[in-house]
Amino acid sequence: MKYQISLYFKLIGVQFRSQLQYRVSFLFELLGTGLITLLEYAALALVFSRFESLKGWTLGQVAFLYGLAELSFGIMDLLFSGFDPGTFGLRVRRGSFDQLLLRPINITIQVLGSEFALRRFGKIVIGLAIFISSLSLTTITLSIPKLILTVQIIFSQVLFFGGLFIIGATITFWTVESIEMVNIFTYGGSYMISHPMHIYPEPLRRFFTYIIPAIFLNYYPALYIFNLPDPFYFPEWSPFLAPITGLGMILFAFLFWQFGIRYYQSTGT
After folding, report:
1. pLDDT tens, position by position, 225-256
2. Nearest-angstrom CA–CA distance, 88 and 224
3. Interatomic CA distance for residues 157 and 62, integer angstroms
4. Cβ-contact 231, 198 below 8 angstroms
5. pLDDT tens track for 84-118
6. Around Cβ 90, how many Cβ atoms within 10 Å?
7. pTM recorded for the entire structure
8. Extents of the domains making up the chain
């Protein structure tokens, strides 16, 4: 295990050095990624300049959801870039994934360390800034229990969406083209949880409650943190399901990944 961790950090070190070789390009990518996130939030803030609330939620409360979602997804995208279904599917079709299988190194560690997009730090920084600003726009005080819950939210979202990346990557073993539908659950899911879930139509909300339980990652913990009533009358312990949701998704994803590796057939290229 110690060897695997050491190997992972060595692979990440290679990624660091290679990306920093072109510092101007790296800087522009970093600024571009952060600027996109900032502009998306600015558009949301403009809506609140016209309407004071979004179905009862203030700008500060929505910014809390938005900042945590962007921060968590940015960390996930940084750590799990190697499993991004789009780029991973291309690797499988080109046959370069077969090269990884021939090496006497754990395949999961190799894929995790194959991509480490430093430009994601732009998204992470802006997400963190939005989250911090949301605290000044609301009257809440993050007590120790609520601060611990906030850390759990970030940790759980990273695991949850990382698991979806792994599942999407595994599916590409049996598809000719990359699965665009996976983006509905990853990027689409991240966008959904950055807004109050009660604003969505019931069929969509039910899907992201009972099929893909993303509602417990951001919305329910926020209800607890802001001392807001639950419009759906779920059990009182629902705000604390985020860690179970995140861990459950990543464990299922790794099991599915191992199943895919076991029955993987080379493209022959």
Report:
1. 999 999 999 999 999 999 999 999 999 999 99
2. 38
3. 17
4. yes
5. 888 888 888 888 888 888 888 888 988 988 887 77
6. 15
7. 0.92
8. 2-262
